[in-house]
Design brief:
The protein is of the alpha/beta class and about 425 residues long. It is built from 15 helices and 15 strands.
């Protein structure tokens, strides 16, 4: 077989990953380094070396001290890395200075996450959100991007006015684009509000899955719904919100949403840009906080998720209810697994231990979800034999608790119905 003339495979980009361990951090540096390696792998970077760099005192110009900067330069040369990934937020000046010192491209944690989001967004809304976040991030870094074009340019229109530098022109173009994107996202937000209003007329309760990235949300979503949402051992495997209807115990329907995964130090640009998506969380009747209970950093990851949730305003008149789902118990050491399940049972119903992969504990989770959203009043109804369609409607839109038939064929049912659903049922019966 002849060799193709053109190789369309993307070039391999090698990377050196550095996690700066700041003094007083409560996170496990080795776990954070592994997470940073995972982020780099999610961008198809070939990680040739990775290390934790301890920082006793932050150097404003470069973050690291002079000695550490030289050590990392030597390591980069030794492994021949094209890119240095710094698992921390860098200022534009720090990023520029490190690129000069290391003679290589430098990507900080924020830039890395934004690039992953840009690659993974699939829906029009997701692409709008990511573009807005990236422009907001890049706006402060134009001094680095355009250092080779700092000269006067004349002309009209997009070439800038007399005396306008390229960096000023580019900032203006970005500012105009940001205004346009925010208007488009506001329209998305308005449309979502209309969709939620329409769903409220078919009052199925809503459940939102949230959690640290790679905690197993999508796997649990697939287990609960029978869907086939992409679920891989990969950071930010899914970005766009997916919704499905599920049947809870006793036939109760609910709408469940799989949302974007959170991560420590989530860029504030993304939190703001994904406001429309996160509103699905604010409007949910119940939030399932999925935790990777097998991770040694599980408690710290939970705090990161809680910090993001605190930045999402509660929906008016809807108190926030959260149920923790301790996922991946199949990965917990056998001696500790029983203790983990026992700890979940001792939380007064605030946590359920499950394995989304094996299905262990999932039925108990369904029961717990039903109990938490089961706040509709019980109603006794008697239907004639000719009202079979109405009985079927009750099964589809409510929760039938009991059903008895008398000698004349009439059916007496005890059912839980949302107030709006009861109104629809009464109108349906009245017009029959």
């Amino acid at each position: 077989m002849s060799k193709p003339l053109v190789d369309h495979a993307p070039p391999v980009v090698s990377a050196l990953v550095i996690h700066p361990e700041r003094h007083g951090s409560d996170r496990d540096p080795d776990v954070r380094l592994e997470e940073a390696i995972g982020l780099a792998a999610a961008l198809d970077l070939e990680v040739r070396a990775a290390e934790v760099a301890r920082i006793r005192k932050v150097t404003p110009a470069t973050l690291f001290g002079r000695g550490k900067v030289d050590e990392i330069l030597a390591l980069r040369h030794a492994v021949e890395a094209d890119v240095v990934v710094v698992d921390d937020s860098l200022t534009p000046i720090q990023q520029r200075n490190l690129e000069k010192a290391w003679e290589a491209k430098v990507i900080d944690r924020t830039g890395l996450i934004l690039e992953i989001f840009a690659r993974r967004a699939r829906t029009a809304e997701g692409k709008l959100q990511v573009e807005l976040a990236r422009l907001d991030y890049e706006r402060s870094r134009l001094v680095r991007t355009w250092t080779h074009l700092e000269r006067q340019r004349g002309g009209l229109g997009k070439t800038g006015g007399p005396g306008e530098t390229q960096i000023e022109l580019d900032r203006r173009i970005i500012a105009d684009r940001i205004v346009k994107l925010k208007a488009d996202l506001e329209e998305v937000r308005r449309t979502r509000g209309l969709h939620r209003k329409a769903r409220s007329k078919v009052p199925h309760p809503t459940v939102a899955l949230v959690g640290y990235t790679n905690a197993g949300k999508s796997t649990l979503f697939n287990r609960l719904t029978g869907a086939e949402v992409m679920a891989k051992d990969l950071l930010f495997a899914t970005l766009d919100t997916t919704q499905r209807t599920i049947q809870l115990p006793h036939g109760r329907p609910a709408i469940i949403s799989d949302t974007v995964g959170f991560i420590s130090d989530l860029p504030h640009e993304l939190v703001e840009a994904f406001r429309a998506t996160l509103e699905e969380v604010a409007e949910a009747d119940l939030i399932l906080h999925v935790r990777d209970i097998a991770s040694p950093d599980s408690a710290a990851q939970a705090r990161d998720v809680e910090a993001v949730l605190e930045r999402i305003p509660e929906a008016e008149g809807k108190p926030r209810r959260i149920l923790e789902v301790w996922n991946k118990i199949d990965l917990v050491d056998a001696d500790e697994r029983g203790l983990t399940v026992a700890r979940a049972l001792n939380t007064d119903g605030r946590a359920v231990a499950v394995s989304a992969v094996t299905g262990d504990g999932v039925e108990a989770l369904r029961e717990r979800i039903a109990a938490l959203i089961d706040d509709e009043p019980e109603i006794d109804l008697t239907l004639d034999p000719s009202q079979g369609e109405a009985l079927a409607w009750l099964y589809q839109n409510g929760r039938v608790l009991s059903r008895e038939a008398d000698d004349e064929g009439r059916v007496r049912v005890k059912v839980r119905l949302h107030t709006a659903a009861l109104g629809r049922f009464e109108r349906m019966i009245g017009s029959a």
